[in-house]
């Protein structure tokens, strides 16, 4: 379905504000009008939705540039692999429902059938690019609505299994890298500001996950009582403010703590290039420091794309998928170190 | 007196067992027969000894290949510099007595006047080489005895200020590097064995000092009731046993924990080559790991001599002497990092 040695186009290091904003994501939650959803959906209902969505994707040509898998192919390992690539949610991986999953070949568009709702559709883009992500999501969304019909009430909007998604059913989010604000200890203040305008801040893998490598996900809290445009604008504008704060923090670092930053960045790159044993967590933290070094121009010999790619490939299931074998944790740490060394080899 | 950018010949990485034994040292404690010593020595007595010893060194030609300095030149900074080079003792640096110091240009022979005794004479050699060190010390010792006359009682031997040095007045010691025994947790057992045959184990800078970088000093405890030959043999034989244990530990590491050892060694070298801020303590620990890597053949591109040299030059007073300026601690850490990077530059 996906090439294990390539990562999504949304990680290619292009697009606006790429030094701070890794990626943009728009996610839509939808349910079919004539099929029970949430806890009322029986297995037969679930299977109907999988079939219906697959049919639309086929008809609309989406399967020409992507693949669709169902429960049988969604093994635990495969689920972990997709989770590490931000293409499915933890709930989807653990779900006991009949599931289906579409992922476009470039990984910018994906659709979970029977996660919490019938349909969870997401579009990803590189850098800060809400309009592009929204457009891609909306295009598939309209086709599905035309062909299948959504549960919708004029006074609320789209109906969802959980009321927190009611209305637009939309979550617009950005994955931001904020080492400057963390190092200058301003991160709390800036994130509180985002929360005060109705946004939510989470770690790298969503709710409750660690903020490893100083990566944060920022998204809208409310889905009801606001238009799609309002949500996209709020998230975009607040992200721009966060980006500005991060740039100021980085300027401060470069002006007042240049040697300390260089020390951290060069040590991190040196460890990545020399370690013989490397855990996933250490790799992510070191790569995050290198990413900062590239953004600051301290490191000129590497591209953000290479670092982004490794940030995905060092994770356990992606590493094993790429190497084509199941490994014990200690073997993984050695093979991970070798992969990173080979990729970051001195020019 | 000494070139700040060169270190002693006894650190040139030559000689027997150099992978484990950094250096050999023989130290003799002596007092003049006709001058009060210890707490009875008045300033006039102290000055007499300084003058007398200097005269002998001059007459015997030692000043042609070395220098003699007295109190005025022995500033606190200079004392620290010499201490870091293992050429004087902490007590000598702090002493309130009228002092004199001879150091040969290659730093293999040195003599403190009015440390605890009138004369503290030491000979250093590279690797495990008791006969060479003893011979060099004994040669100067005989000349001093002939010209000045020592306090000596046939039933005891040489008289010293502190009874722990009575008899031969000799301390024979080796500086050993035992990372293998530390990593395999056998160090306690092996060092207990050395203590049980009458030896003493100390840290890098003598009594009470830290065992930084897994360096240990092993020397004889008793000086009375044993001949010089017996002492030299005991220390040499026990050192050979320690060396054997260390080699076995290293074999074990290479066979069973090769990747872990390589990881430690390559990470250490990479950090030394990339850090922009480096404390003296971190530098010593990382250099010690690299020294192990060179001894094991894991690192082939560096010589032990280069590592030995840096182990001295990274220390605060030596660093400042070499750079020719007094620096604040944070400036030292940056300049130290630069010196280490430049010295260990990738081939």
From TrEMBL, chains A, B:
Its EC number is 2.7.14.1. Catalyzes the specific phosphorylation of arginine residues in proteins. This is Protein-arginine kinase. ATP binds at residues 23-27, 86, 120, 171-175, 202-207. The keyword Transferase applies. Residues 20-249 form the Phosphagen kinase C-terminal domain. It comes from candidate division WOR-3 bacterium. GO terms for molecular function: ATP binding; creatine kinase activity; protein arginine kinase activity. InterPro entries: Arg_Kinase, ATP-guanido_PTrfase, ATP-guanido_PTrfase_AS, ATP-guanido_PTrfase_cat, Gln_synth/guanido_kin_cat_dom. It catalyses: L-arginyl-[protein] + ATP = N(omega)-phospho-L-arginyl-[protein] + ADP + H(+). Appears to be allosterically activated by the binding of pArg-containing polypeptides to the pArg-binding pocket localized in the C-terminal domain of McsB. A motif (RDXXRA motif of the pArg binding pocket involved in allosteric regulation) lies at residues 332-337. Keywords: Allosteric enzyme, ATP-binding, Kinase, Nucleotide-binding, Transferase. GO terms for cellular component: extracellular space. The keyword Nucleotide-binding applies. Belongs to the ATP:guanido phosphotransferase family. Coiled coil: none annotated. It is an enzyme of class 2 (transferase). One of its GO terms (biological process) is phosphocreatine biosynthetic process. Pfam families: ATP-gua_Ptrans. PANTHER family: ARGININE KINASE 1-RELATED, ARGININE OR CREATINE KINASE.
């Amino acid at each position: 379905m996906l090439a294990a040695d390539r990562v999504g186009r949304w990680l290619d290091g292009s697009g606006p504000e790429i030094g701070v904003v890794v990626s943009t994501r728009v996610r839509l939650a939808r349910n079919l009008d004539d099929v029970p959803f949430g806890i009322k959906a029986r297995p037969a209902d679930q299977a109907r939705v999988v079939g219906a969505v697959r049919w639309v994707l086929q008809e609309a040509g989406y399967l020409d540039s992507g693949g669709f898998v169902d429960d049988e192919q969604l093994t635990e390992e495969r689920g972990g692999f997709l989770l590490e690539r931000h293409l499915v949610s933890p709930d989807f991986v653990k779900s006991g429902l009949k599931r289906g999953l579409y992922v476009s070949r470039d990984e910018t568009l994906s659709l979970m059938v029977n996660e919490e709702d019938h349909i969870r559709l997401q579009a990803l883009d590189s850098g800060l690019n809400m309009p592009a992500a929204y457009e891609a999501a909306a295009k598939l969304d309209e086709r599905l609505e035309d062909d299948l019909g959504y549960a919708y009430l004029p006074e609320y909007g789209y109906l969802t299994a959980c009321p927190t998604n009611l209305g637009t059913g939309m979550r617009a989010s950005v994955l931001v890298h904020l080492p400057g604000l963390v190092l200058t200890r301003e991160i709390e203040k800036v994130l509180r500001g985002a929360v005060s305008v109705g946004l939510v801040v989470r770690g790298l893998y969503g709710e409750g996950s660690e903020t490893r490598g100083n990566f944060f996900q920022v998204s809208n809290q409310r889905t009801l009582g606001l238009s799609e445009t309002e949500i996209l604008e709020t998230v975009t504008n607040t992200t721009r403010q966060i980006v500005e704060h991060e740039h100021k923090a980085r300027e401060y670092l470069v002006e007042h703590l240049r040697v300390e930053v260089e020390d951290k960045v060069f040590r991190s790159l040196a460890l990545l290039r020399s370690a013989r044993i490397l855990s996933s967590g250490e790799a992510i933290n070191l790569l995050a420091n290198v990413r900062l070094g590239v953004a600051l121009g301290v490191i000129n010999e590497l591209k953000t794309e290479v670092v982004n790619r490794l940030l995905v490939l060092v994770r356990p299931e992606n590493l094993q998928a790429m190497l084509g074998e199941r490994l014990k944790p200690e073997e993984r740490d050695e093979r991970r170190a070798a992969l990173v060394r080979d990729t970051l080899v001195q020019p």
